[in-house]
Specification:
Layout: E1 7-13, H1 20-30, H2 36-48, H3 55-60, H4 64-69, E2 76-81, E3 86-91, H5 99-106, E4 111-117, H6 124-135, E5 140-146, H7 157-174, E6 182-185, H8 209-214, E7 228-237, E8 241-250, E9 253-254, E10 258-262, E11 270-279, E12 282-284, E13 286-287, E14 292-298, E15 310-313, E16 320-330, E17 344-347, E18 350-363, E19 370-373, E20 383-390, E21 394-395, E22 407-412, E23 415-427
Parallel strand pairs: 1-3, 1-4, 4-5, 5-6
Antiparallel strand pairs: 2-3, 7-8, 7-15, 8-14, 9-13, 10-11, 10-15, 11-12, 11-14, 16-20, 16-21, 16-23, 17-18, 17-22, 18-19, 18-20, 22-23
């Protein structure tokens, strides 16, 4: 039986080495969502690898390579229950080369926990993650100022206040309201204010991390919008057949539904009927927005569907755009962006090269007002309205119609160059 508690997808973000994985591991362990013997095994493993103190991080970093490097590479999903909610925790990598996973992660999250080390404060990647979170629609944020125990910080209120001000400025600059953000003072490795109240910071009157996540609001589920399931992976399971795995972004999918995957192998769509739906190893009759599901579809062959395809009801297929108009912000381009530029766009789970065919307007990023018509180029910090042509068939929706399927990030040579959303499109005939 699936959980009756409201479900929240929560992403942990922040600069590399600021303690995200350790915070998640500590939260799971201290709240009883992780057994003692599992931790003991991880502790031994951490010691064997000369990484003592990394055992909590290992809870999330279950790839061998990550354990040896002590770095989070892929996205880890973990189920986590409180009295009030059940969470899927997404531990997003802080490492620069892994930001593309961070994008996939944040675009699936209803809420974010930004981990900032008290000794370091705001770093370049802290900025990038905060900006991406905002652009990708993570509307609720908790800021955990971590490593309060570290030498030089010594649990002092003054240092906490300084980092809090610094982060507040950053949040304001991208459009979050800091007064609506919960700030925490924690020391994840020691467990201060993660689940248990700290005895080392009597000046801190705020909630623990566990209390703070229980104060989050579950997302409004866009169940009244058309069905869209973004495919993340496709498995071929003996005795069952083809099982796409993905997240229900909008609408409701039920066993027996007639569905179509777009663009599919030929760009014309692939039709089928839903036979089974499963989540967290439980069979479901239906799934709703926010659910990460595996589902078996009669009619989908092994080569028919792939990551980046979008499943919808047959009578309302996902939109394949031959071109689209976007509002976007340039974050991190080494020079300037001009017409003809053809980077990789990350849209829901799709990664498709797209060409910028026109730069129509340059906007003030803070107010959105037009500052120039048809500029020759745009550069870091600029917001703009641009026309874009995908090199191969691509599903995207208008922000006004299905906002969950309208957002994208642009990556080039290992950097997130820009992010934005689709405001208009031309349907592929």
């Amino acid at each position: 039986m699936a959980s009756e508690k409201p479900h929240i997808n929560m992403v942990f973000i922040g600069h590399v080495d600021h303690g995200k994985s350790t915070t998640v591991g500590r939260l799971l362990f201290d709240s009883g969502n992780l057994e003692e013997q599992v931790l003991r095994k991880l502790k031994d493993k951490a010691q064997d690898l000369g990484k003592a103190g990394f055992e909590f991080a290992f809870v999330m970093d279950n790839l061998k390579e990550e354990q040896e490097r002590g770095v989070t590479i892929d996205l880890a999903h973990k189920r986590f229950d409180t009295d009030k909610y059940y969470f899927t925790i997404i531990d997003a990598p802080g490492h620069r080369d892994f930001i593309k996973n961070m994008i996939t992660g944040a675009s699936q999250a209803d809420a974010g926990v930004l981990v900032v080390a008290a000794n370091d404060g705001v770093n370049a990647q802290t900025k990038e993650h905060v900006f991406l979170s905002k652009t990708l629609g993570v509307n609720q944020l908790i800021v955990a100022i971590n490593k309060m125990d570290i030498s030089g910080v010594d649990y002092k209120e003054e240092r906490y206040g300084k980092v809090k001000d610094e982060v507040s400025q950053l949040l304001k600059s991208v459009g979050y309201d800091p007064s609506k953000v919960t700030f925490l003072a924690i020391a994840a490795l020691k467990g201060d204010n993660v689940v248990k109240k700290s005895e080392n910071m009597d000046w801190y009157k705020g909630p623990t991390l566990l209390e703070a996540i229980d104060q989050l609001n579950p997302p409004e589920k866009p169940t009244d919008l058309p069905l869209r399931v973004a495919i993340q992976d496709v498995y071929n399971i003996t005795g069952i057949g083809v099982v796409p795995v993905g997240r229900v972004e909008t609408g409701i999918i039920k066993v027996g539904d007639k569905v179509v995957a777009m663009p599919g192998r030929e760009g014309k769509g692939v039709n089928g009927e839903v036979k089974t739906i499963e989540m967290h190893h439980e069979q479901l009759q239906k799934a709703e927005p926010g659910d990460n599901i595996g589902f078996n579809v009669r009619g989908f062959g092994k080569k028919d569907v792939t990551r980046g395809d979008v499943v919808a009801h047959a009578d309302n297929p996902a939109t394949v755009a031959s071109e689209f108009t976007a509002q976007m912000v340039v974050l991190n381009h080494p020079s300037v962006i001009t017409v003809g530029y053809t980077p990789v766009f990350h849209i829901h789970t799709a990664q498709v090269a797209c060409q910028i065919t026109a730069i129509e307007k340059k906007l003030n990023p803070a107010t959105g007002e037009v500052v120039a018509e048809k500029p020759d180029f745009i550069k870091n910090g600029d917001a703009a309205i641009v026309k874009i042509k995908p090199v191969q068939p691509l599903v995207i929706e208008k922000q006004k119609e299905i906002p969950q399927m309208s957002r994208f990030a642009i990556r080039d040579s290992g950097l997130t160059v820009a992010a934005g959303m689709c405001i208009d499109l031309v349907k592929k005939s």
